[in-house]
Amino acid sequence: MQNTVFRKVERDYNLKRQRAQNDAKLYKKNVYDENPILQEIEDEINMISLKSAKARIFSDDLNRRKEQEKLEYKLNKLNCKYDDELRKIGLTREDFKPKYECTKCNDTGFCDNKMCSCFNQELINESFKQSNLAKIKEENFETFDFGYYSTCNNKEKYGIEKSPLENIDGIRRLAYKFSHSLNDPEQKNLLFTGSTGLGKTFLANCVASEVIKHGKSVIYQTAPILLDKMVEYKFKFNKTESDIEDYDKIFDVDLLIIDDLGTEAMNSAKFSELFNILNTRILRNKKILISTNLTPQEIKREYEERIFSRFVGDFIICRFVGEDIRILKKKMMK
Ligand SMILES: Nc1ncnc2c1ncn2[C@@H]1O[C@H](COP(=O)(O)OP(=O)(O)O)[C@@H](O)[C@H]1O
Ligand SMILES: [Mg+2]
Ligand SMILES: [Zn+2]
Predict the structure, then answer these.
(1) Average pLDDT in the 253-268 region?
(2) Which ligand is nearest the CA of 119, by number?
(3) pTM
(4) Is 40 helix (H, G, I), strand (E, B) or coil?
(5) Closest approach atom of ligand 1 to CA 149
């Protein structure tokens, strides 16, 4: 079986690289059309370079050596002239270089004989297209807005001593630290709980963005889709190489984000897949971030003991409180 995901991403990279190179060529051509002097100098440089290279082959000959020195001198002058002409129109040679998306691998997907982190992330994105990782462009630690969280202390309403603002400030710090401690065996996993609209998914996206920025891989998936996929895989008769790869990634990816746990209809096959994920990843020191609308008490009631005890032992439980931000936003629009 061919590895379709890999080949698709590889093809995209070739296209992306070619596009950057063609764009650069086209740009240069346009600049040259408007400034023919550049072409003239370049032609001259090319001609002299060729002569100089020839002279170098016979550089044991004294006359040739002198000739070569002269040529080198001319070349230098021409190069300066070329740079001067460019400067006059506000450009440098840099402007003619292809603009690659990744400056580490120049969109080849490989650097230092290893797969570039950008390529690795593309493989993951491709396999999990339906995940909303696209949102991390808008939802990240830089765009995080504290303005939606109240400064009022109201234990009766929120169930905690702190104000929602103080509370979210603490959770945000935990989440930020978590993003930078994925390899730390002392770092526990995160469980975001709280009712809908309190910013759990937003903060999960902040974490995803931060982690990807630092070259690590992330899979974001909602619990219903993830568990369905896993059960489907288990019962699939003819597993392709790419099926196997996708499945293995759930256990190997640097960070797995499971959103909306508790919205899926559970059954024993899904329980055992969920337990399998938690157990395997925890044993491998691979971090998990789970977000749920259920309270810890509800999890205890609705999930198996072996799953609940994982949550208690290996997760930091972050309780989100406040007002539904979706509603706040609507009110502000009025
Ligand atoms: N800190 C934040 N800054 C700006 N917008 C936010 C913030 N937290 C949440 N939002 C916005 O509020 C809405 C609800 O947040 P979301 O994360 O989906 O809540 P939850 O996952 O808890 O149901 C979304 O539109 C989201 O973009
Ligand atoms: Mg959510
Ligand atoms: Zn790269």
Answers:
(1) 91
(2) 3
(3) 0.71
(4) helix
(5) 1
